[in-house]
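Re: export button greyed out
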Amino acid sequence: MLNRRNFIRNTAITTLATLSIPELVTTTFAAEKVKKIQLQKDDIILFQGDSITDWGRNHTETKPNNTSMLGSGYTLIAATHLLTQYPKNKFQIYNRGVSGNKVFQLAERWDAECLNFKPNVLSIMVGVNDFWHTLTNGYTGTINTYRDDYKKLIDRTKQALPDVKLILGEPFLAKGVRPEEKNWYPKFNEYRLVAREVADTYHATFIPYQSIMDDAQKLVPGTYWTSDGVHPTVAGAGLMAQAWLETVKA
Amino acid sequence: MLNRRNFIRNTAITTLATLSIPELVTTTFAAEKVKKIQLQKDDIILFQGDSITDWGRNHTETKPNNTSMLGSGYTLIAATHLLTQYPKNKFQIYNRGVSGNKVFQLAERWDAECLNFKPNVLSIMVGVNDFWHTLTNGYTGTINTYRDDYKKLIDRTKQALPDVKLILGEPFLAKGVRPEEKNWYPKFNEYRLVAREVADTYHATFIPYQSIMDDAQKLVPGTYWTSDGVHPTVAGAGLMAQAWLETVKA
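Workaround output, generated via the alternate export path:
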């Protein structure tokens, strides 16, 4: 975090505001020293998470690389890029995000909807509901529940798939969108830090979506990137996909 | 066509096969001297066409830049790029493609679903059903029906919207995918040529999707890019979006 903080402190907002979106993403990734994953031919790539990943996918469609299975969020945009640009790599890309999921709900379906796929690359984006549902759904899990559940999930994953390449996405909230935003802080920040801590612990690639979103909000307000602070618009999904694609090379 | 033919004649297939997809698209566009459209701030961009454009959109959703309204085909991929990369341009992007449509069916809904939008940029991808339905649906329209209907539609459009920037997509068939492919030739080629003729007549930007598809098939077979020769896979939608985006600058 120090590197990033220094970087932001030394960069005038006016400078960031003149950067293009690809430049913003590259700049954030450089400041955060994000580790790139080398994709291989025939890689099985699995996207897991909550509604942000699920995004209207058909839960009964099981074939890889299929539009309705992939949904129409950042997963589809990232998958489309990989499938279009690297046709000879024969990637098999799956989306198994489920709306509303918290970490313990990923765990409940992990054998069938993750480990059995034997993914080479596993991308997980989870955590916003682990916090949000404490405000809205009477969920009683704490930050320690989130940390413990997340670490247990990754332990179990590494046990079954020792060579899996992990990409963990930071839970984020676009600022100035939700009327009750103040209820999210400072508590929600702990969930972001724990996601980063889990990534560090397991040497996973971490996508700093909050930094990306904060930077993108220097160009246009958070309502452009998300409908409600949490759920991305088309532009927000494109921004997430751009960040996701920055974590891999093929 | 001559330029393109010469280019292909002078370019070894082995060379094309080593090009990346963006290079293939750029090369095809250069060979065809495709005219780029300059997008402006606040542009209203409308996608019209058949199932390839429609692609699972929610027909009751009317708001611009909305995922479910945009569907999940090339329209969504192209729109996502424009909305993500040019947030300050405040584009309003609409999809009003309808599965199964031929040109006369676009005409039937043209006031409500095109002219009333007053688009600054209008992209039309139509023609495969004007031919295909003569084989499968007892449609009796001929190549002259297609030409006359298409020219009448564009005349009417230019009358109502003299400054509209037009992008017309070439109907295409991926080769080696459909068992009854031989029934498509040579007749189907005339539909491609007429789409090009209409674009030339009205100084519209023409997207040579057939050339793009033919080139992409030098990398991997047509089944990678389309499910049935006509309908794009995720990779095929990405390829179309890449070609579409090559026609504009912002």
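Residues 1-14 of chain B have pLDDT under 50 and may be disordered. The button fix ships in the next patch.
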